[in-house]
Every structure is written in C-alpha cells, then in structure tokens.
Amino acid sequence: ALRIAFLRDTPAGTEILTIKAAGGAERKLHVSPVRMLEWPVSGLVWSPDGKFLAIVDTDSAQAPPSIFLLDIDTRERRKRTTPPAGSWDGLPAFSPDGGSLVFTRGHGRPLSDIYILRLSGSGQPRGEPRRITYDNTFVYGLDWTADGRSIVFSSTRGGVWALWRVSASGGEPERLPVGSNNAFWPSLSRKGNRLAYSEGVADWNVWRV
Predict the structure, then answer these.
(1) Cα gap 54→66, rounded to integer Å
(2) What is the rounded average pLDDT for all residues in the chain?
(3) Nearest-angstrom CA–CA distance, 154 and 160
(4) Which end of the chain is more exposed for a tag (fewer CB within 10 A), N or C?
(5) Contacts of 82 (CB under 8 A, 6+ apart)
(6) Residue 11 pLDDT greater than 60, yes or no
(7) 198 forms bridges with which residues in the sheet?
(8) d(CA 69, CA 98)
(9) What number is the average pLDDT over the span 86-108?
(10) How many CB atoms lie within 10 A of CB 99?
C-alpha cells in the first residue's frame, strides 16, 4: 500500500511516522533527539524501493547528527555516515537508482558542503563519502536529476538564494536559468523534466504603536 512518511516535533524529540495514503491510523517508527524540522539538519526521504527512510539521527545525546537508514518493517536503524568531530550531516537524498546518497556536511552550523556516499545493493556504504562542493556556504535543499548524473541545490554561493546544478562527479556548479534570487527546496520528478521549488518573499515594514 502507498504510504506517506512525515515528521512531528514533540517535547521528547522528532517523531518519524507513516500513514497510508488512503488514510487510517498513524504508525510511529522512531523518535529522534535531533530536531529534524529545523534546517540545516532536516531530512526525511524514501529509498527508491520504499524499504527504507533516510533520516538524520544520533547514537547518543553527545554524538553529532548523522545519516541513518530506518527499515520500515523492522524499525532497525543503520548508521551510514560518521561526520568528523565538530561536524554534522543533514539533508539526505537517494539517487534514482538507490546506489548513492547525497547529503550535506557542515563544520559549524549552518554552513556546509555537499557530499555523496555510494551504497551497495543492501544499503552498505562503499568507501568514504566524496565531497563535491567546496563553498562552505548555506545549502537549503537538494535533489538528484532524473538521470542520476547531477545534483540540483539551493545555495547562497552566488550571493543570493539561487538554484544551482553540479555534476555528481564534482566540478564547478552552474546556476540554473530558473528560479528567483530567493529559491529554496528544489525537488525534481523522476519522470520527465519537472522541477518544483519554493520561492521566498520578504515584506519589511515599519510600524508605530
């Protein structure tokens, strides 16, 4: 059955839940101490086969946020990244074939860069994560292109919140000719050339009371 995964912020932490798309009772899978509804360590994404959720979690209250795979059936967590001391990982996204996981790694919130971790067929890491950007700037959402060759992301690397594309093998990012100077949270369809994103609008006023 089709299911929807979502997050709920509670005093105990961030609940990870699923519900059938047709409605029904919620199913709680896990409670994480990481406030995943807060950028930049947010993250909740399905694996292409629907068996796992990539989440941001920790081993303990003292451990940094890392990327875990959460088994939908058994609720087992499998840690997949180990950020260096003083760092954190967030914003995971599976490649269309499920063979790679892209995420951000920061060395002091909220600045970060983009990394890619290759996965085996069973979801085991294949080597160390590979860094593909060197901006140390704000990243506000990312996703894979349908062919799995590039990453589209929102970043301030050009001085404004714009949409950029970088090859999954690395190289110089290029700004996309779509989106405004306040474009966030890109999401690409798996079939066809469709891109959805959020556009921020600020309205500043002076009031007298």
Answers:
(1) 10
(2) 92
(3) 10
(4) C
(5) 66
(6) yes
(7) 184
(8) 12
(9) 94
(10) 15
* Rounded-to-integer distance, Cα 179 and Cα 16, Å: 31
Query: Tens digits of per-residue pLDDT, 138-163?
Result: 999 999 999 999 999 999 998 999 99
pTM score, two decimals? 0.91
Distance CA 204, CA 121 (A): 50
Where does residue 25 rank: exposed (0-12), middle (13-18), buried (19+ CB within 10 A)?
A: exposed
3-state helix, strand, coil in the chain (%, to 5): 0, 45, 55
Task: State how far the Cα of 168 lies from the Cα of 149, in Å rounded to an integer.
Answer: 5
Q: Specify the length of the chain in residues.
A: 209
- Tally Cβ neighbours within 10 Å of residue 183: 22
Check pLDDT > 90 for residue 1.
no
Distance CA 153, CA 177 (A): 13
| pLDDT given at position 185 | 94
